[in-house]
Amino acid sequence: MNANLRRDLSAYPPDMVDQRSVDVGEVRLAYQLSGPADAPPLVLLHALGKDATDWEAVAPALARSRRVYALDLRGHGRSDWPGDYSLEMMQADVLRFLDALGLGPVGLIGHSMGGLVAYLLAEDHPQWVSRLVLEDVSVPRPREPSTPARPDGALTFDWEMVLAVRRQIDQPDPRWLERLDRITAETLVIAGGPQSHVPQAGVAELARCIRGGRMVTIPVGHLIHHAAPEAFTEAVSAFLEEDFRPARQT
Asked: What b/e string do you get for 135-158 counting C-beta neighbours within 10 Å, with b at 16 or more?
């Protein structure tokens, strides 16, 4: 694959959201921007194989009181596809993104793989994260490796990125777990309940490993912000506003 391969932007029709991009060193990251210019910043990190558009069900509600930055991580969507991938590289990209835009500390929401990137950033650079939301993310422990099958047709993400990231998720760096107690941001872990393919015991363990971590279950499966957008935004908004009152906690 050629270095810095980028998606054809014509595949993404314009909408009301402000579409922007910024150089963050070796890659250019695309992002969607919404919300009042003077509102506190909130950064959204999508799951593996998704992009900024994945947040469309909840971004408008979150943007009522926040300046929302929904990123395409490297190898995804409109951002560059450099052919070189790791979760640590994605973490470094997000840090450079915050620095380039003069943001921080920020509220940070990560779903699945995006949650891994989010807590790695909060571990290593706690001063950049004020509030952390991890959506259906498990504690980083080794699991039985598996080789995913490439979907047919054109993809909106780099398949080489999927393979690289899956290898890391299957055999995570032990330091990821060891450093969870370095997170100083107030943290909310949202679990998807028994319908999720993510082991819920691991999600609960993640919340316990983070000092002051809280957990709430919205039992609709792994895609919480899609399946229950109102419940998701209600829990997140209350948490960001420091008035967290979970209806169901585990």
From this structure: bbbbbbeeeeeeeeeeeeeeeebb
The reported pLDDT for the residue numbered 16 is 56
Domain boundaries along the sequence of the chain: 5-240
Residue 129 and residue 121 in contact, taking contact as beta carbons nearer than 8 Å = yes
> Cα dihedral angle (226, 227, 230, 236), rounded to 10 degrees?
-60
> Is the link from the previous residue into 105 a cis peptide, with omega within 30 of 0?
yes
Alpha-carbon torsion, ordered 219, 225, 230, 235, to 10 deg: 70
Q: With cut-offs at 50, 70 and 90, classify the pLDDT of residue 249.
A: very low
pLDDT band at 17 (very low <50, low <70, confident <90, very high): confident
- Rounded Cα distance, 75 and 38, in Å: 30
The whole-angstrom separation of Cα 186 and Cα 223 is 23
Quickly name the fold that domain 5-240 has. Rossmann fold (3.40.50)
Secondary structure (3-state) at 71: strand
